[in-house]
Design a protein that fits this description.
The chain is of the alpha+beta class. It has helices spanning 32-41, 101-116, 122-129, and strands at residues 5-7, 10-13, 20-22, 27-30, 45-47, 52-55, 64-68, 71-75, 81-83, 90-92, 94-96. Strands 2-1-7-8 form a four-stranded antiparallel β-sheet, covered by helices on one side. A four-stranded antiparallel β-sheet has the order 5-6-10-9, with no helix packed on it. The longest helix has 16 residues, at 101-116.
Length: 130
């Protein structure tokens, strides 16, 4: 991706950007700094168990705008919100890309934490993200 990435009309990144649109999970992955800017705009709280930001289900998520292959794309904010099966827990459908040895260790820690800690929403999260 090149050019500006905008979230709610605010520029969150310029220049060349890396990203992954995972159509198999309905997630978009982006650089940590960019995703953090987006999540902060929404008051998001990072949930390491699923590598997603929890957001208020009442929060209006703005549109995400970017260029890919020289063409502009807009992902409507309503399509960037993921709800669990109960409709009581919501997440931003944009996650931080995690690559490299250090991040693999972090993901192993997340898997261990998920097995050891019951936050009361783990089952709902698993249904949501598969």
């Amino acid at each position: 991706m090149s050019g500006q990435v905008k979230f709610g009309g605010k520029v969150v990144s310029t220049g060349r950007n890396a990203g992954i649109i995972d159509s198999g999970t309905s997630l978009i992955y982006g650089p940590k700094a960019v995703v953090m800017k987006m999540a902060l705009q929404l008051g998001g709280m990072f949930m390491p168990q699923v590598n997603l930001f929890a957001i208020s289900c009442d929060k209006k998520v703005p549109d995400l705008e970017f260029n890919f292959g020289g063409k502009p794309y807009v992902v409507p904010g309503k399509d960037l919100t993921m709800k669990d099966v109960t409709g009581t827990h919501c997440f931003l459908g944009v996650s931080m890309m995690m690559f490299g040895e250090e991040d693999e260790e972090s993901m192993a820690d997340v898997e261990t934490l998920d097995e050891e800690v019951d936050l009361g929403i783990t089952e709902d999260i698993e249904k949501l993200v598969g």
